[in-house]
Amino acid sequence: MVMSLGLPWSSAGVTAGTYLPGYLSPSYCYTNYYYGTMDCTYSSYSPGFYLPGYVVGGAPGYATAARVFIAVAFALVLFSHRQMSQALLTAALVTAAASVALVGGELRSGPLVLLVSIGCLLMARQRSTPSPTSGWQDRQRAAG
């Protein structure tokens, strides 16, 4: 669950390009009294150039609003394990699912890892939930 915070949650975007303007360095003239002439420097010109846009990587989980929900869900999982509470585990599952729904419909690697961890928690919850007949079977084994 916590690993999904380091994975990308949104797709990459492209930034706009930038035009860097050129420059003109004009010539200037000065009087050379030694030779009795007028000397002028050369002017220079640079036309400028365009820098195309570049691809910006997707936002990781710790940069999205889902980070709060994931941290709360992880804390609820720890508390539910310590208290052996099914209600806290259910609250953790709902909170983790809310973080995926909060970010949107884009399934990148971050939300997918979180969904897999939600599936694992669901399987753990079902295995730890006692069946209604488990007490009856234990009593039958003890009696027989």
Structural overview:
- With 144 residues, the protein is an alpha+beta fold.
- The chain has a domain at 65-125.
- Helices cover 46% and strands 19% of the residues.
- It is built from 4 helices and 6 strands; from the N terminus they run E-E-E-E-E-E-H-H-H-H.
- The protein has helices spanning 66-83, 86-103, 109-128, 134-143; strands at 13-14, 18-25, 29-32, 37-40, 44-51, 55-56.
- Strands 1-6 form a two-stranded antiparallel sheet. A two-stranded antiparallel ribbon has the order 2-5.
- A hairpin with a 4-residue loop joins strand 3 and strand 4 (37-40).
- Helix 1 (66-83) runs antiparallel to helix 2 and helix 2 (86-103) runs antiparallel to helix 3.
- The longest helix has 20 residues, at 109-128.
- The chain starts with 12 loop residues before the first strand and ends with a helix.
Question: Could you list some keywords that capture this structure?
Answer:
two-stranded antiparallel sheet; 6 strands; 19% strand; rod-shaped
Strand content: 15-25%
- Main β-sheet description: 2 strands, antiparallel
Distance between the termini: 45 Å
The rough form would be described as rod-shaped
Strand order of the largest sheet: 1-6
The residue ranges in which pLDDT falls below 50 over 5 or more consecutive positions are none
Q: Give the helix/strand class.
A: alpha+beta
